[in-house]
Specification:
six-stranded mixed beta sheet, 145 residues, Nuclear Transport Factor 2, Chain: A
């Protein structure tokens, strides 16, 4: 009986470790993608920056101008507000908190800092990432600044 309990505990603890490792890998993947977004933005490439967003009319973006639904409307809004590399400046992110809410959903809270000649911008954001077709994508973005 005692051997059976040890075996059950071993497999239970092993599955927890495997789950944690997969969770850690998922969160690391999301953070890596976020940092790639900062590089793409700083290079003046909004199209590459937006590759991490869900290409769907259900994408939600909440910012200073209110709520925007849809990938196309979101990228159009970015391009209108940041028409060139000078307006885009140099973007950095600081990750404050991540939480894997399920096998397919991660939330990430952070700060952004945009350094540019026209004046720096900074604020906070909450991103909801969802694993869609094997790729982590932003399905909701609330940015305050």
């Amino acid at each position: 009986m005692q051997i059976q309990i040890k075996i059950v505990l071993f497999f239970l603890l092993s599955s927890i470790q495997i789950g944690t490792t997969q969770s850690d890998k998922a969160v690391a993947s999301v953070i890596e993608t976020l940092h790639q977004q900062a590089k793409d933005w700083s290079a003046g490439n909004i199209d590459a920056f937006m590759e991490s967003y869900w290409k769907s009319e259900k994408l939600q973006f909440i910012g200073s101008e209110g709520v925007t639904f849809g990938w196309k409307k979101t990228i159009d809004g970015y391009k209108r507000r940041y028409p060139d590399k000078a307006a885009m400046g140099h973007l950095t992110f600081e990750v404050l908190n991540t939480e894997k809410r399920s096998r397919t959903v991660i939330t990430l809270i952070g700060r952004y800092h945009l350094k540019r000649e026209a004046g720096d911008l900074e604020g906070v954001f909450l991103l909801v990432w969802k694993k869609i077709k094997g790729k982590w994508l932003i399905v909701a973005d609330q940015t305050c600044g």
